[in-house]
Design a protein that fits this description.
4 domains, seven-stranded antiparallel sheet, 21% helix, alpha+beta, six-stranded antiparallel barrel, 496 residues
Length: 496
């Protein structure tokens, strides 16, 4: 039925619809009287806006391009159409902010907020990371030069300091854990250089992982944020900062009602470390981990798909010294439950180096405990991080495995070159694979299957033989240890 046909057919159902609506209205009226509303909608946000806007600032810094051609930046990498009103307005704004910049220099634009009358300003790391000559502009048009106290790339936070004896307005952090989904929030910032812009919405969701780093735990808000809002605050209705705006989800680069903010309770810890040390020191376990899918849980005999599966152990690291092994599922750390793969990096990172902690493990169908001494996190290029691999390639000929729904082949020099398999790695190469359920993790072309339920395999026939085990059939799933683009990972495959 077309839309027009649907509209034309409506009058014939109008009488019954009215009866249905009347009944629904009575039910709604009854339900409304029994619901407790914790925070009614304010009649106006004007008082709140007036209170906090003075402490929200515009942050600009100069970017020098090595190529000699600079591109101005405001949070996200897209430009306005040439000749459009926004393009002209933004060009004039940049020229006013940096009238003396050279053609090889661009301007990075963002937002920030003052958290201390002594002149400490919070913003996003990506606003100032590549820049110099940082300039802070208040809503009353006062301007100050700022220096970078410290920055944390992994959470995208930076702390600046203004050198002034002037009296400065400031705002305070609130408790982001107290904010409930559906509560009102207000974002303030400088989208497209339009200072002091206020937008209102609600907390849409908590605990969002947008794959920006190992510590993702974002608040999702629908208060509009756009280019230039990064580093700006999101407030609760009491005027406390409950989030630092950092990213948006958008196919076009403009607001579509999905924005992300770093929770204030996470930001406070990072900023305190930056203020004291200029950098953040984190604990390090020395493992690479992945999520536990329902198929992996079944294959390993777990009742629930929770915890973090150890995919790699760094030689000589804290986990290796504590005899934590590849294939272990970490379900608890230092008394805290590890519900999913995102919990462990945050818990370990907040543990001081040198601290001894008990690690709860699931191994070989049973629970056990390991004692580990946490080390200081090394530089990112020297550590194994918690990442989920998402990669694949193409195929020549091979042998089909109906149980796996894949075409497999014994490793040859040609396949090593084609799929980038390192010399010395043994296993069976996946040439092609069916996606039984695209929402779940399955085999991909280029995967190297090394073990099936703990049994090493080197030919397609050995794969099928290993899958005949009665244990796998009773669990309804089989656990594969694979290498994908150089990284060891695990895949749980359901059995028909």
């Amino acid at each position: 039925m077309t839309d027009l046909q649907a509209v034309r057919s409506t009058p014939r159902r109008l009488a019954s619809a009215r009866r249905a609506v009347t009944g629904a209205a009575l039910a709604l009226a009854f339900t409304w009287t029994t619901v407790s509303v914790s925070a009614p909608m304010p009649e106006s946000f004007s008082g709140l806006a007036e209170k906090v806007i003075p402490a929200v600032v515009m942050v600009t810094s100069t970017i020098r391009s090595e190529s000699g051609r600079a591109q101005d930046s405001a949070d996200m990498p897209f430009n306005f159409p040439k000749g459009s009103p926004f393009d002209e307005m933004f060009r004039q704004f940049r020229e006013r902010q940096r009238p003396d910049r050279s053609p090889a220099e661009g301007v990075s634009l963002g937002s920030g907020f003052i958290i201390d009358p002594a002149g400490y300003v919070v913003t996003s790391n990506h606003v100032v990371a590549e820049g110099r000559d940082i300039l802070i502009k208040l809503s009353d048009q006062r301007e100050y030069r700022a220096t970078l106290v410290g920055a944390d790339e992994q959470t995208d936070l930076a702390l600046l300091k203004l050198e002034t004896k002037d009296k400065l307005p400031y705002v305070e952090f609130g408790d982001s854990d107290q904010l409930k989904v559906g509560d009102w929030v207000m974002a303030v910032g400088n989208p497209f250089g339009l200072g002091g812009t206020v937008t209102v919405g609600v907390l849409s969701a908590r605990g969002r992982d947008i794959r920006s780093g190992p510590y993702d735990d974002f608040l999702q808000i629908d208060a509009s944020i756009n280019q230039g809002n990064s580093g700006g605050p999101t407030f609760n209705t009491q005027g406390k900062v409950i989030g630092v705006n950092t990213a948006i989800a958008s196919p076009s680069g403009g607001n579509v009602g999905i924005g992300f903010a770093i929770p204030s309770n996470q930001a406070k810890q990072i900023l305190a470390a930056l203020r004291q040390n200029g950098h953040v020191e984190r604990g390090w376990l020395g493992v690479s981990i992945q999520s536990v899918s329902p198929e992996i849980a079944r294959a390993m005999g777990l009742d629930k798909a929770n915890g973090a599966l150890v995919a790699q152990v760094v030689p000589g690291g804290p986990a290796a010294k504590a005899d934590i092994k590849v294939g272990d599922i970490i379900t608890g750390f230092a008394g805290e439950t590890v519900k999913d793969v995102r919990d462990l990096p945050r818990i370990v990172a907040s543990t001081a180096a040198g601290t001894a902690a008990n690690v709860e493990l699931w191994r070989d169908g049973g629970r056990r405990t390991a004692s580990v001494h946490i080390a200081k996190q090394p530089a990112p290029d020297k550590q194994a991080s918690a990442q989920r691999s998402d990669r694949g390639n193409d195929e020549p000929e091979g042998q089909s495995s109906k149980r796996l729904g894949a075409k497999l082949a014994t490793v040859t020099p040609e396949l090593r070159r084609q799929f980038g398999i390192k010399d010395g790695l043994a296993g069976v190469v996946v040439l092609s694979a069916e996606q039984i359920d695209p929402r779940r993790e399955h085999l991909r072309p280029g995967d190297l299957v090394q073990k099936v339920d703990g049994t090493a395999v080197s030919t397609p026939a050995e794969v099928d033989k290993a899958m005949e085990g009665s244990g796998a059939r009773s669990r309804g799933a089989v656990l594969l240890q694979i290498v994908r683009k150089g990284q060891t990972t695990f895949v749980g495959v359901p059995l028909a």
